[in-house]
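Recap from last week: sequence in, structure out.
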Amino acid sequence: GAAGQAITMTLSGTGSGGSTLTGILANGAGGTLALNVNTTGGGVTTLTNTNSTFSGGITLTQGILRGNAGAATSAAFGTGTLTLAGGELQLQRNSTASTNFGNATVVTGDTQITSIRNTSGTGVVNNLGSLSIGAQTLTIASDPLASGTAGIGFGATTLTGNATFNIVNGPTSTTRLNLGALSGSGDPIKHGHGRL
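Predicted structure tokens:
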């Protein structure tokens, strides 16, 4: 594309097979790279490289998007904003130590975020960056392989409407949602048996 032009890569499809991107995703010479994820049929789109540098952000509208982590920080989602308009975002680390993905997150539609493991073991609270959410429902869950406490943490949180946080415990774990300093015109509404 021309210099400064945004480059958008759309990941879409149907079926249960899913797709895995293993390489570093970076901005091109012509402009910034952005990802759109819109899949159906239960397939999982997995980003395994934790050193991606693309800055155009990710928009998730449908399907499951999974980011892997192997250390205290992960750039599996690049450095841009995560826009969650639907579907499920999964943060995966097979460790008892949490990972900071660090991405600012904007919720524009009902979405689920799940902290997951590869194998059975103690769950962790993985972290994203700031959060902006309006009158949507954000479900926070931990997968069946986790025990103890698992969940998701955010930094500074802006409520642009009355946001519903549905916190769902796993079969053998307690799910926790950590929010940073609250601001904005809305109020948080908690549902579920997990911890806020």
